[in-house]
Design goal:
The N and C termini lie far apart (68 Å). Strands 1-2-7-4-3 form a five-stranded mixed β-sheet, with helices on both faces. Strands 5-6 form a two-stranded antiparallel sheet. 54% of the residues lie in helices and 8% in strands. It is α+β, with helices and mostly antiparallel strands. It has 18 helices and seven strands. A hairpin with a 2-residue loop joins strand 1 (87-92) and strand 2 (95-100).
Length: 468
């Protein structure tokens, strides 16, 4: 027994010693390569404890209180006297992360050095229990397969279904009662927008229509699904923040939410695949429809009969499309209610350029209404609907700025380095957006063509397929 214990102890000592030597050798090589390329380290955001646990806990608390993005701005501003530091290092749970709000670094990640970056290796592990594998959780060849499967379905002709949007907007309008002056009382629109966009997205994805009064159906309950979906995504936020330690966030409640979400999607996927099998064995030729409603699941099922793949891809699209759309609508109405000048100008332009008849509204007219586009862009800029974007270096590479005392030197990134682009923080910089970035001013978009300082839909090969 003593010899066995001694052998185990020696083995562990050898493993630890090998790991230490490997780490020191890698660090020495990286320092030499960084020096060769003229790189300097970015400044470090100080932590109040050894592992940066306090900073993670502060961020999670701020996120629950819906002030997460401003907290990141404050953390960056801690390093300078007037917000001049735009790239920094931070230690989180024993790992170093590079954070940046510099458009030149964003450009390098998304464009000039795009082949050197990919989403983090832990993203799939963070999201898979709830959303499965799909276009927003996979990398490499698996992601390219998902992209090839989904991208053709998001052409303008396929998704510019104004009738679909009109039905759900009318349903929302019917809930809003107006007084004698034509205005509603004070109302919280956000939960209404989240409900509307869920109904719209589940109809777009699965063909799930709202249940009519007295109608009997065995379809799963959408309100129950909404509750489990929202609660499950709450767990995902914590898992993402913990990175490689995401597996610590598990509980019976999270597992129950995941199961219920999967059951909802599986109902429609199973029904579609069974219907497809019956059609394939039917000897009667199918009559072509003169005009059929676009349902994403129907189109994807023409290319794959893998039930898990269909579930994962549709849940990935639902997660990305529903919450962001509802949040954007909520913020736009928030700003319009507080900036009456903007509201009056936008209303006048819509009446003049589009009119009051629903039948006169089409996708082209909406896109051509410049002031409407300016209002949408300004809401996206001010709020950062997706406040951070994360990538990981696939190889040793360099970002052009952020190193040294003045941030003018390049920064060396070893293979496996996590980089977080602070999109919200970047969109609050006075040197990029003028002296009043905290003011909702759509006019700032006149004659402005945004570059990498404005990336609401990401960039590079993984730019959002549904951005139009």
């Amino acid at each position: 027994m003593a010899l066995i214990s001694l052998g185990i102890g020696c083995g562990l000592a050898v493993l630890i010693l090998t790991r230490i030597i490997s780490t020191l050798t890698s660090q020495s090589r990286c320092r030499a390569e960084a020096a060769r390329q003229g790189c300097k380290p970015a400044p470090a955001i100080p932590n109040r404890d050894f592992l940066g646990l306090t900073r993670i806990l502060d961020y999670l608390k701020a996120t629950r209180e819906e002030r997460g993005p401003p907290l990141l701005v404050d953390a960056m501003n801690e390093l300078g006297t007037s917000g001049e530091v735009h790239t920094a290092r931070v230690q989180v749970l024993g790992s170093e992360i590079l954070v940046t709000r510099d458009p030149e670094n964003v450009k390098a990640i998304f464009l000039t050095h795009a082949s050197s970056f990919e989403i983090g290796a832990y993203r799939a592990g963070c999201f898979e229990p709830l959303l499965g594998l799909g276009i927003f959780t996979q990398r490499g060849e698996s992601w390219r397969h998902s992209r090839a499967l989904l991208r053709p379905q998001f052409t303008r002709d396929q998704v510019a279904d104004m009738d679909l949007g009109e039905r759900h907007v009318n349903a929302l309008s019917a809930v809003l009662t107006t007084g004698y002056d034509g205005w509603t009382d004070v109302v919280d629109l956000q939960p209404m927008f989240f409900k509307m966009t869920l109904e719209l997205m589940t109809e777009f994805l699965y063909g799930h229509l709202p249940t009519q009064m007295g109608q009997k159906t065995d379809a799963p309950d959408r309100e129950e699904f909404e509750s489990h979906f929202d609660s499950g995504k709450g767990f995902l936020g914590t898992r993402v923040a913990l990175g490689k330690w995401h597996w610590l966030v598990r509980s019976p409640a999270f597992s129950r939410h995941c199961k219920k979400v999967h059951q909802y999607a599986d109902y429609f996927v199973t029904a579609k695949l069974q219907h497809g099998q019956k059609s394939a064995t039917n000897e009667e030729p199918q009559k072509p429809a003169t005009k059929s409603k676009f349902v994403l699941l129907d189109e994807l099922a023409k290319h794959t009969n893998n039930a898990l793949e269909l579930r994962g891809e549709t849940l990935n699209v639902l997660s990305a499309g529903r919450d962001t759309t509802a949040a954007l609508l909520s913020w736009i109405f928030y700003f319009l209610s507080r900036y009456p000048r903007v509201f009056n100008q936008l209303r006048a332009m819509i009446l003049a350029e589009i009119g009051t008849e629903a039948s006169s509204i089409d996708f082209a007219k909406l896109r051509s209404c410049q002031y409407l586009q300016h209002c949408i862009n300004e809401a996206l800029r001010m709020t950062g609907i997706v406040p951070t974007v994360e990538r990981e270096s696939l190889e040793d590479t360099v970002l052009p700025r952020g190193g040294g005392p003045d941030g003018s030197k390049p920064v060396f990134l070893p293979k496996g380095q996590r980089v977080v682009m602070l999109t919200y923080a970047m969109q609050q910089r006075c040197d990029l957006w003028g002296h009043d970035p905290e003011v909702f001013r759509p006019e700032r978009w006149e004659d402005r063509k945004a570059g990498f300082e404005f990336i609401p839909f990401g960039g590079g090969p993984r730019k959002c397929v549904g951005r139009k």
